[in-house]
Design brief:
The protein contains 3 helices and 3 strands. It is α/β, with parallel strands linked by helices.
Length: 105
């Protein structure tokens, strides 16, 4: 995995999720893609994302997937378009440190 080139690295594991916030699925120095997406939303910024950001990479936190899943469920059950910004603000309110979109260093 070290140095493997890709456009996007996605962490779809639970490694780094609370309470094990000091764990990471791989060292940040191994990441060779310009963008890192960690689907974990607790904590809002995992060690993997912190290390990627420190290297100047674009990062996406798990809030985006969390909100997308909630929106899909809302639409399935109500037949109406989901209020994405309301959902995002509600999720951020439950964890104030969650970033709301892609962030660059």
């Amino acid at each position: 995995m070290r140095g493997f080139r890709a456009d996007l690295l996605v962490n779809a594991t639970s490694v780094g999720m609370a309470p094990d916030i000091d764990r990471t699925p791989l060292p940040g120095s191994w990441v060779a893609s310009p963008m890192v997406y960690d689907i974990i939303y607790n904590p809002s910024e995992t060690r993997l994302l912190r290390e990627a950001r420190a290297r100047g990479l674009e990062v996406i936190g798990g809030l985006e997937m969390f909100v997308a899943q909630a929106a899909a469920q809302f639409e399935l059950f109500t037949g109406r378009a989901a209020p994405l910004e309301v959902m995002r603000r509600a999720a951020q309110g439950s964890q104030p440190s969650i970033p709301s979109r892609r962030r660059r260093r």
